[in-house]
Amino acid sequence: MRQKFTVLFDLDGTLVDTAPDLIRAHNHVMKKFGYPSKSIDELRNAVGSGAKAIMAKGNGKWKWFDEKIQNEMSDEFISFYGKTFYMRVLFLMV
């Protein structure tokens, strides 16, 4: 019988501080859609609440834009974050 090994990572800030990456993705989206960027201090408490919450907080309130814009911004956030975080992880593994 072959033994299988599994490695699990909990990337909620315990092992890797992803807040700077999330803020970078937030600011990318805000700039693309014509909104001002925010500092890490302004958004740190929104990190961990999901893409929609961090962008809503960046808009200055905990409510959203219209649904179409919300979906476009969320898609852009997830795409940008996924690409940049993936590249950072690859860099760290080398």
Mind explaining what this structure looks like?
This protein has 94 residues and is mainly alpha-helical. It has one domain (21-93): Orthogonal Bundle (DNA polymerase, domain 1). It has 4 helices and no strands. The chain has helices spanning 19-32, 40-43, 51-58, 67-93. The longest helix is centred in the C-terminal third of the chain and has 27 residues, at 67-93. The model has no long low-confidence stretch (mean pLDDT 76).
Give the biggest sheet: none
- As a percent range, the share of strand residues is under 5%
CATH topology: DNA polymerase, domain 1
| Number of separate structural domains | 1
Radius of gyration based on Cα positions: 16 Å
State the low-pLDDT regions, or none.
Answer: none
The top level CATH class name:
Mainly Alpha
Counting helices, strands and paired strands, the structural category is: mainly alpha
User: Average pLDDT value?
Assistant: 76
Number of helices: 4
Using the alpha-carbon principal axes, give the shape: elongated
Number of strands: 0
Features:
mainly alpha, DNA polymerase, domain 1, 0% strand, 94 residues
